What does this fold into?
Amino acid sequence: MALGLDPVTAYSASAPLPKHIDEFMLAGFLRGEPVEVVKAKTVDLDVPANAEIVLEGTIEKGELGLEGPFGDHTGYYTAAEPFPVFRLSAITMRRDAVYPSIVVGKPVQEDAWLGKATERIFLPAIKLTVPEIVDYDLPVAGAFHNCVIVSIKKAFPGHAHKVMHAIWGLGMLSLSKAVVVVDAHVNVHDYGEVFFYLGANVDPKRDVVIAEGPLDHLDHAPAMQFFGGKIGFDATAKTAAEGAREWPEEIIMADEIRELVDSRWGEYGIPAHADGGVVENGSRRGLRQLLRR
It folds into this structure.
């Protein structure tokens, strides 16, 4: 057990890697250079040479002890459960070693950024497996594994349903309880925009999928630990082949109108933001004046 690593190596220990992929290899790839390691003193393992503290020891199959309860990243105190016992054989450390810790609890806490790093780093791998995926977001408020928002290049009727089931069978994403699928042009990181399409495009009778599957170890909601319900929302635009009526045209401001509006805010004394937007309290007044002209 290595404590006090460089941030990339510490992150790599939490990454949802397949069993045959070594965490040190991922860390070296992300760092752009190998992780320097040395031989441990009492066990036949390599350990990070620059760790603040290294705990060496063994775990015997079948030897369990009661662990917990702990305040966890779920925002709840998880119950005490039997876990493998670690038999300590040596402690090595740097001079004046620093013991690192992390604050967890109701989101947002420090561990949120470990989850967001995984979200971004593993997007190419997810797209390699499910190529119709454009982007995805794991909301911090959902403790990551409770909700997935995903945008897709929709190509056939029921495509969103196919993607939901793909996610529920994809590595650690299989633990997700809720999946929201939107069209490719929707910004999955803008929750207001996602909620608009969720409200506008979903017919609960047609577009809600209820399923069952594996759940996170720490999820206290299901009646049975590790297994329970899943829900999926198809918030994509529908076709006649999916039983929809003629789908209405979405209101989108033309580029030339947007450019005209942006170019004339100064005439009304409304300061612009650096991103080209305007202050909220003046935008409506300025737009009304512009339309009257």
